[in-house]
Design goal:
By secondary structure, the protein is mainly β. It is built from no helices and 16 strands. The strands form 4 sheets. Strands 1, 4, 7 and 8 form a 4-stranded mixed β-sheet that branches. The chain has a 4-stranded antiparallel β-sheet with strand order 3-2-5-6, with no helix packed on it. Strands 9, 12, 15 and 16 form a 4-stranded mixed β-sheet that branches. Strand 13 and strand 14 form a beta hairpin. The radius of gyration is 27 Å and the shape is rod-shaped. About 5% of the residues have low confidence.
Length: about 170
Amino acid sequence: AACGGSEPSDPPATATATVSGVVSAAAGAVIEGASVRIGSATATTGPDGRFELANLPVGSATITTSAPGFDPRSESVSLIEGINTHDVVLTPTPTATVSGVVTAATGAVVEGASVRIGTVSATTGADGRFELANLPVGNATIVTSAPDFVPRSESVSLVAGPNTHDVVLAP
């Protein structure tokens, strides 16, 4: 037998890596409930934003992290045998807000009109004003209806932050 060596018939021990870290928002707060994945291994962050993935193969891997209200993030990591630390910072998904006034063709404000984009809706007040918040950025359809008026559907392009869109309804 070879001195200090293993016999060729012995199965080699497979080196594994463990990755742990904290998922936080760009503003600094930890994110509870984020999903962290490397290959088929997944973990969900706890109240302290911490996660741990164990028994991973050593070498290059992609760590993918996602959480509601944040853009998903994929990063390449190089895993060494044993303990690896990798913190992840997620950026909030940009959202848009739309506000405006619903008026009749005569110029009078329309109280009680329903204004909707996707699943987000609002009803105009006595001043005809509405506001829809936490909308995805991009192209959307704003649907407005009110009793005694023809419903109106319009395409809008929403930018991150505040947007203004007034609606005129015809009888």
